[in-house]
Design a protein that fits this description.
Layout lengths: L2 E5 L2 E5 L1 H26 L9 H5 L1 E12 L2 E6 L4 E7 L3 E8 L11 E11 L2 E9 L7 E10 L2 E10 L4 E12 L8
Antiparallel strand pairs: 1-2, 3-4, 3-5, 3-11, 5-6, 6-7, 7-8, 8-9, 9-10, 10-11
């Protein structure tokens, strides 16, 4: 049996048919919202204004492959050294050091640099403004990036004519979270 309900000084009839209609409309609205939410989350790197946010964070370099002419070198960045890359909404920085604090002359190393970057779709371009290897400064490097969950793969060419550097690099990073341990 229906009844009259007053809502904001409007008098509406509320009965079983109206209740079914309202329930159906609420279900349709919920399903539509869920579909829209899931479609927006599909690939944050290549869609919408949040593509840069998907790269933001601190990344630990796990492996690197360098291909120069006919020579391919694979580096495990988990053995004897650590490198992180920090990306915010406009800039990147990288820091790499040996785990012996420079005490072993055969493995002592420290590399740091940073600058601005741009991201268009999967095309990531670094404009290196600062680097302890000064001949690398003021150079631009183009990469293709892929992001799957917390893994970032960066692939591109490093070319500096005056030094003879001309090589392809493929670097695999994992995202560090606030509870991650980066030192051993």
């Amino acid at each position: 049996m229906g009844k009259y309900v007053t809502v904001k000084s409007y008098r509406l009839y509320s009965g079983p048919k109206q209740t079914q209609l309202i329930n159906m409309n609420v279900r349709i609205l919920c399903v539509s919202a869920l579909v829209m939410l899931l479609s927006c989350e599909r690939n944050a790197l290549n869609h919408g204004p949040d593509k840069v946010k998907s790269l933001q964070g601190t990344w630990l370099l796990i492996t690197g492959t360098t291909i120069q002419k006919n020579d391919t070198t694979h580096t495990d960045y988990q053995k004897g050294q650590r490198m992180i890359k920090i990306i915010n909404d406009t800039h990147f920085a990288f820091l790499n050091h040996d785990l012996n604090h420079g005490k072993d002359s055969t493995s002592a190393m420290y590399v740091a640099g940073g600058g601005r970057y741009t991201l268009t779709g999967d095309q990531y371009t670094e404009h290196l403004e600062y680097c302890n290897f000064r001949e690398w400064e003021d150079k631009t490097f183009h990469f293709t990036v892929t992001l799957k969950s917390d893994t970032l793969v960066q692939r591109g060419i490093e070319k500096i004519e005056e030094t003879g550097i001309d090589r392809e690099i493929i670097e695999t990073y994992i995202r560090l979270h606030s509870d991650s341990v980066t030192h051993q």
